[in-house]
Amino acid sequence: MRSRWGGFWERKMAAPGLWPGMGRLLEMPAALRRVSRPYSTFQAFAEVLRLPKQQLTKLVFPLQDLERQLVPESKSELHLKIFDPSLEEIARAESIFTATARNRIEYLSSAERLDHAPDLPRPEVCFIGRSNVGKSSLIKALFSLAPEVEVRVSKKPGHTKKMNFFKVGKYLTLVDMPGYGYRAPEDFVDMVETYLKERRNLMRTFLLVDSVVGIQKTDNIAIEMCEEFALPYVMVLTKIDKSSKGHLLKQVLQIQKFVDTNTQGCFPQLFPVSAVTYSGIHLLRCFIANITGNLKTDGIQFS
Ligand code: GDP
């Protein structure tokens, strides 16, 4: 079915003191062991917690790490305290993304059109981005605590691109949308635009931007589309391990300025990530858990 909106893409293409809570977290193993048996995420996260403070910040809170490079009067330019969970809260989110006998994390099905999509009751999040932005790598990194999950990649030209649905226990569904290129596939309009506009349980769209090159023309179109459809969305900056700190900071500040001045539906805080170093991955898992209503963090609950 052709989108009622006439196809957005078609039109556009034509045109702490020190770490509060950490002590308590390290004292929790007995209670936590009950939550996750086969893989102990908490053990894994406890390893993260043993890192020297600077390394831990870089891995878990990459924006904070970047902020340290800024002169004091520029620090407020990065809105890094809007979603600012404690390390305990981040550890709790890890359990949601950890495969266990009781918490099944698995690929469910693929669909070419919304009316072929599985009818799932759980809150849903989706990931969109240009081809090659690092979407598959990011989704693999998010599922690293469920190593059995196969993130399907269909990149061969001519192959039909599909939406891939993944179940994350009883908590949420994660949807991997086909990547858009300079020339979005024709069916993209029917598939992606219809999904974004009509999927009732879609809680948040994660729009990926390559931090090395910044916002490109097709990213701009995707941003305009999210704005026009009044979707709540979040910008995730991929491949942050590839640039020098200076270049990354410049890009992040530029993108932040763009978000502040040109967007309404975009979450004001950026999420920089690396699928290679895992920087930002724990925080992103925690954010997903929070916005799907599965993890209350102190203070504000985002919905
Ligand atoms: P997709 O087309 O958006 O799914 O992109 P892929 O996940 O396949 O990644 C495209 C290319 O970028 C591949 O060569 C990846 O190895 C590389 N890549 C993806 N994420 C990262 C990252 O975080 N860091 C680095 N250095 N390379 C990455």
TrEMBL record:
Name the Pfam families for this protein.
MMR_HSR1 (PF01926)
**Entry cofactors:** Mg(2+)
Give yes or no: UniProt keyword Magnesium: yes
Tell me the ranges covered by the EngB-type G domain, including all copies.
121-294
Supply the InterPro entries for this chain. EngB_GTPase, G_ENGB_dom, GTP-bd, GTP-bd_ribosome_bio_YsxC, P-loop_NTPase
Keyword annotations of the record? GTP-binding, Magnesium, Metal-binding, Nucleotide-binding
Q: Which family does it belong to?
A: Belongs to the TRAFAC class TrmE-Era-EngA-EngB-Septin-like GTPase superfamily. EngB GTPase family.
Query: What is the protein named?
Result: GTP-binding protein 8
